[in-house]
Amino acid sequence: MIATANSELRQRVERLRSLPSSPALLKPLLELLHQPPDKISLDKLTQLVSYEETISAQLLRIANSPLYGRARPAESIQAAIVTLGIQRIEDILLSSCIGKLVPADKWVVDLDIFWRHSFGCAMVCREFADRIGYAEPEKAYLAGLLHDIGIIVNSLVYTEEYRATVAAAASAGRPLVEQEQETLGFTHCDSGAILAKSWKLPAAIAEAIEWHHDVATAPQGNPVIAITHLCDLLCRLRGLGYGYEEWRAIDLTADPAWTVLGNHCRRLATIDLARLTLDLDTYLVKVTALVDTIFSPA
Predict the structure, then answer these.
(1) DSSP for residue 50
(2) Is the pTM of this model over 0.85?
(3) Which of 8, 32, 71, 73 sits in a 20 to 30 Å window from 227, CA-based?
(4) Burial class for 53, CB neighbours closer than 10 Å (0-12, 13-18, 19+)
(5) DSSP string covering 203-244, please?
(6) Average of pLDDT values for 263-276?
(7) CA-based radius of gyration for the chain
(8) Is 21 exposed, middle or buried (0-12, 13-18, 19+ CB in 10 A)?
(9) With 70 as the cut, is the pLDDT of residue 34 above it?
């Protein structure tokens, strides 16, 4: 029995090494995300947009949605870029190029639900980081955007096993990470860490991908892990999760991540928790409206 288990484990490891290479657009997009908005070339962004056959129509549809309230319809890509802003366009492009890694029949978590959660978490990470005085909110944003890339690996490599795992988590209303560990023996954090290493993502982002569900034993010195953990939790419990309701309560201050952040962000010691919670809930309503616009049917 032990020999069989070890053999199966070796096979899993070997399969996880056969990962998709980094999408061609990922590197330039990450480079854009790390630049100040006033330094990003509009020509470069337009060039990236041109790589995707359907992206122009999607940008125009979103720019002309009621959420942006334009007096006149945007009729050109340039007008759509001005309306949406560079960050939003990068988001849409990033979801498009990463989404193409997995064939449609292998997506276990619905593609729109996956990106709805990822973008929601990214925006909440940035807002939360800014409110608690973390100096690099854009780094927190990127961690939130990519924290669940292990779900891509699990969907691609273990499609049917993972489909049953997600279904079991949804039926029990339990966190996906717990069901993964019980059913598969590893989690999307484990497989995500392997993919992050393969893609050579920045260390702080890779650590957030690997440890965002295990802050208590995570490497010290990287508050992005704790920020990602808390914001992921907030999103999942406020309707921006994996398409099902998790049956649990949340207490930010009792979470180990809160203590970790207190060591890095001194503002946390004097922050009005009730006001912060109310502001984040209000912000989540706006975020939900935005991601629903982006990931609604055309």
Answers:
(1) H
(2) no
(3) 32
(4) exposed
(5) HHHHHHHHHTT-GGGSPTT-HHHHHHHHHHHHHHHTT-SSSS
(6) 86
(7) 19
(8) exposed
(9) no
